[in-house]
Amino acid sequence: MINGGATQDHPPDDITDPFLRGFNVSDLQTASEFLSHWLPFLSQDLCDHCTHLISERVRSINPSEIQASTSQRDLDGDIDNEDNHDINDTEDTNSLGSWKDGVNGASEPIEESSRAEIAQSPERVKSPRPRMSWADMAQEELDADEEEEARGKVGSHSGRTGETSEVKPTRKTELSREQREHIRFNNVRRKKDFICLERVNGKFVNILDGLELHCDIFSAVEQKKIVDCVYDLQEKGKNGKLKERTFTAPHKWMRGKGRVTIQFGCCYNYATDKNGNPPGILQNELVDPIPSLFKLIIKRLIKWHVLPPTCVPDSCIVNIYDEGDCIPPHIDNHDFLRPFCTVSFLSECKILFGTNLKIEGPGEFSGAFEIPLPVGSVLVLNGNGADVAKHCVPAVPTKRISITFRKMDESKRPVGFIPEPDLQGLVPLVYESDKPKGDSNICKPNRPSNRQNIRRDDIKDGSRGYAQPRFYSQTRQQVPSSANGRRTRLQQIEK
């Protein structure tokens, strides 16, 4: 129950305006917050009286503001309830559908980082909520209001004089899951032009060739669900509910040592162990299979052109960092194919690349090139970026979670390994520019064009420094004019 007798589906009893009563609490609060944000612009150059009227009108849209005018006690109650309302108001179901089931099949609400935190474990910290794009907000609003859309909730009133206004149920414009997914897919930011030249075997080489950074792959709600899933898995590991080699929590005996790891699909041996097993995949050790939510992540990575369909991950490792934890310089073992990728959560950190990374102290490294990894970003390692340059993560300033997805060399897979059936035959989405236009099946001949072909995923946003357009077409050969052709024939005749 919301303040003033309002519910999620109905406005407060205090609202008497027939137009406002056609909207529910969610719509009223969204409108109030939006207009309040733009109030300085809307009231610009207006007199104090008019500015006050506009301000009061905007405030009156918010149900909590109406109730707040009653008493200070009611105001305090409104704030508490407003917190709960905000959480429920932005509940998300993902464009792929399955995200809303989470890990245990139950839908979870989104939380604002300024008001709530990922709770129930003292080790959990607030999950920063990245700035949401318009596509995210539109998709989440549509999903959260599916039941209201079915009933109709938007009211309209007659503008004719003398007629009484009435609420008429209408349906909001619906976007299919495919349409919503394509909106977000086409708004992914991709950077593929990393350059760092170092001398390798006597030649200067771009040691970062093959690196890609993809942003806006996961919405704020999806990131929260993934982080919650990781913490749940960590609790299971602590309680002995995961296989022995799945969960590892070493004793933190010095700065940078103590990173918690959770492995799925295969058990990777970082160094020669007490049994003499060399670094690599342990073929006689079993770990838990990839969780269902992580398989959804893999499907997203393939469908959204982050990883190729020829290299679908069949294993992953979760790293849970505390402040000061790090990963020393290394090149990933070739028991895993290229490319592979790492997804970052909770906080931004930097990763260093170079052929000669130096250890300056516990958790402190120096190298030729540094790349910041934003929250929710995916870093793909391939080519020189995976095999020529080493990489490391210096001591992180705050809690961080990363998930690295890799595909095993088939000859290195554990004994008895069975590929996940629902990760077979994944197909990437098609860019809008690559789709055939119209319904005609008539094949049209190719015509020469002066325009150069540009891959959509390489288009640069000049203000943000993303990848430059990459041109693939060749310049056309010059054809001699008819006059030049006649002169050539005359010269041949004279000879």
Describe this structure in words.
With 495 residues, the protein is α+β, with helices and mostly antiparallel strands. It is 26% helix and 15% strand. The protein contains 11 helices and 18 strands. It has helices at residues 25-42, 48-61, 63-68, 72-89, 134-144, 146-151, 177-185, 220-238, 292-303, 383-387, 482-494, and strands spanning 189-191, 197-200, 203-206, 212-215, 247-248, 260-264, 268-269, 280-281, 315-321, 327-330, 340-345, 349-354, 358-361, 364-366, 369-373, 378-381, 390-393, 400-406. A hairpin with a 2-residue loop joins strand 2 and strand 3. The longest helix has 19 residues, at 220-238. The protein is elongated and about 80 Å long. The model is unreliable at 68-98, 100-122, 129-135, 153-162 and 439-490 (pLDDT under 50).
Please describe the topology of this protein.
Elements: H1 25-42, H2 48-61, H3 63-68, H4 72-89, H5 134-144, H6 146-151, H7 177-185, E1 189-191, E2 197-200, E3 203-206, E4 212-215, H8 220-238, E5 247-248, E6 260-264, E7 268-269, E8 280-281, H9 292-303, E9 315-321, E10 327-330, E11 340-345, E12 349-354, E13 358-361, E14 364-366, E15 369-373, E16 378-381, H10 383-387, E17 390-393, E18 400-406, H11 482-494
Antiparallel strand pairs: 1-4, 2-3, 4-16, 5-6, 6-9, 7-8, 9-18, 10-17, 11-16, 11-18, 12-15, 12-17, 13-14
